[in-house]
Design a protein that fits this description.
The N terminus is likely disordered. Helix content is 11%, strand content 31%. By secondary structure, the chain is mainly beta. One zinc ion binds next to loops.
């Protein structure tokens, strides 16, 4: 399983409460909270393009923040839409897989 950096998502599903499920091509399952995804958004309105300094203040996010939908951007990643109206972020599958926090990955595997 090592040496594969080209991760493919077989299944992408929004689950209650506020969880995103991804089942990968190798059968691995990852769960992400919608809030943590929103907080890790790397788009130009959340992170300064030049300095990479975060612009988003997660304290200003609504407490009931959740994902309202998503689009696949080719086989590269996901464009997620959030209940606060934010819809410009793209999460690459590679980054999502690398940030998997399940016991097996523990967010440190990469
Ligand atoms: Zn963003
Ligand atoms: Zn994992």
């Amino acid at each position: 399983m090592s040496g594969s950096s080209n991760y493919q998502a077989e299944v992408v599903e929004l689950l209650e409460p506020a969880t995103l499920l991804i089942v990968w091509g190798d059968g691995h399952e990852s769960l992400f909270s919608h809030r943590s995804l929103r907080e890790s958004c790397q788009c130009a309105s959340c992170v300064d393009e030049w300095s990479r300094e975060p612009i988003l203040d997660s304290a200003n996010l609504p407490v009931d923040l959740h994902c309202t939908g998503f689009d696949l951007t080719g086989n590269y990643g996901l464009n997620l839409r959030f209940s606060d109206g934010h819809a410009t972020g793209i999460w690459s599958f590679e980054r999502l897989r690398a940030s998997c926090a399940c016991p097996e990955c523990d967010g440190s595997n990469e």
